[in-house]
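Replying to the earlier thread about multi-chain prediction with a worked example.

Input:
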Amino acid sequence: MTLKVGVVGATGLVGIEILKLMPQFLRKSEFTPVGFASRVRPGENILELASSWDELRRCDYVLSGATSEVALMLREHMRPNQFLIDNSSAFRMDPSVPLVVPEVNGDLLKARPPLVANPNCTAILLCVALAAFRKVGLNRVNVATYQAASGAGIKGLEELDRQHAALAKGEHVPKPEVFPFQLAGNVLSHNSSIRSGTSVGAGYNEEEWKVIEETRKILDVRHLPISATCIRVPVRRAHTEAVSVDLGEDLSLEAARELLRAAPGVKMVDDWESNHFPMPIESQDQDLVFVGRVRKDPSLAKTLHFMLSGDQLRKGAASNALQIMKALVDG
Amino acid sequence: MTLKVGVVGATGLVGIEILKLMPQFLRKSEFTPVGFASRVRPGENILELASSWDELRRCDYVLSGATSEVALMLREHMRPNQFLIDNSSAFRMDPSVPLVVPEVNGDLLKARPPLVANPNCTAILLCVALAAFRKVGLNRVNVATYQAASGAGIKGLEELDRQHAALAKGEHVPKPEVFPFQLAGNVLSHNSSIRSGTSVGAGYNEEEWKVIEETRKILDVRHLPISATCIRVPVRRAHTEAVSVDLGEDLSLEAARELLRAAPGVKMVDDWESNHFPMPIESQDQDLVFVGRVRKDPSLAKTLHFMLSGDQLRKGAASNALQIMKALVDG
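Result:
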């Protein structure tokens, strides 16, 4: 018997990746994929699917790469024996829903939860690397990101491409619609809204806040002091992060590298002689998190710095969701 | 009587900016500019100038935008009444040479030193912003950079332009010569060499080490715990930095902003509603350091985060050198 796997948001960048990569995670004979394009009728609380609702109800697993609005409606329609793995932020911080990066907290899947949240892409990549130091103790984390245009979906990617094409022809760059300002040849604070007011978290954008809260939940360090500065760069695909971490112990550089090398999901790219370090043109289109530039702080014995790069549409979204499904299937 | 001002390295990006901007710092009637293209004869310790050495010896001020090798030879040829303002790293960490950002430690110019070092571009921009918090106390600094291709000179800029042109035409990107890997559509660890070995500073690249050492010297906080991650992004001009700073006191967000707003050389660009923050396409071609995204750490009361952007060829090089000259002229 083959599993019916429904992919909601099948025409979006994440949905496309899920459908493309599914055969890498399950054998062809094990599943039948069904793509569902989704749309919420404006002003109404009705989810429309390009295929039929009956079809969705017959799926064993539903993987959603659609919006939070769609995800909330999907949950209401799920049957008891179905599993929903959702890539939106709708359920991530719900205490009853596991937020899973299989290499880090995959043990949560043993309970076979019917709803699993797939974390924010930047948080997934960060947690894969930080998990290397869990036994040593994580006392403080700081991250600055170099995020790709495709993190904003197909429209973000197309906008960057159009801007590059215009600049190359010496033409005027068309007015940006996805990003608030021109991204080509520029660097932009992440285009999510800023948390207003004056209480904790004021001034952070929503992307940064997801990284902060989700990293704490995934690593299960509830009060971890962590901050993030999320910035878009004119890169098509794959996110890069500059990470600083205060550990519980004074590790030697070699010991730190050894922990990273042994961490599941990490590939070390740290060649001092040829200046070869993690970069998006190499980390894209594969599933490992590239880590390098590992070094000890010049003044603080327990502080390490490194950079990482990974494909935010694969390990940061589609592949992580498929890993979750695979773990549930293998039970 | 007009001042004769010699500009060595006059055909380089910094030299061109110095010659272009000089009239903004001194009245036309006050000076006569003389450009000198410089070249060190390969394998020999001889500095060749496109104009005559006699001409250089008649200059009251010599501003060099050339290499450290040229700078070391220039110093040997300087007459007692000449001033040398050098943009290379040859003299920056020499304890007998002041390293000056006029807004920060311009008082060092009152002694009329014959040789003044112009700091590293990334360090200048950082110090202009950090100086706002000197009275509060700086306990720890961490910076991740988004540096422009023109920081690697004309050849770096042209290489990025060629890569963008090839990509827009769907052609193969020519083999990089200035940067170790393709910069267009990518993010690269800074292309300076990595400090080897296992002692303090191992694994840092030379750019990062300059930021660390020079920031300590400019701010006169000798043992300041500071780290930097220097990264190139596909931007033509102006550097951006994500900065985290641990202060001596718990400042309110408003108090922190007030200090930054009052800091000489800083322009606040911090509009939460429209996501308008410092970015290179706006900070280029002017002399202020744009600062924004100011926010308090969610966990650490004395920690602030912000980002900044500034033109590394102007405030990060040419304009800073001209400010130094202007201060010496005004005496």
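Residues 124-312 of chain B form a domain with the Dihydrodipicolinate Reductase; domain 2 fold (CATH 3.30.360.10).

Feel free to reuse this layout for your own posts.
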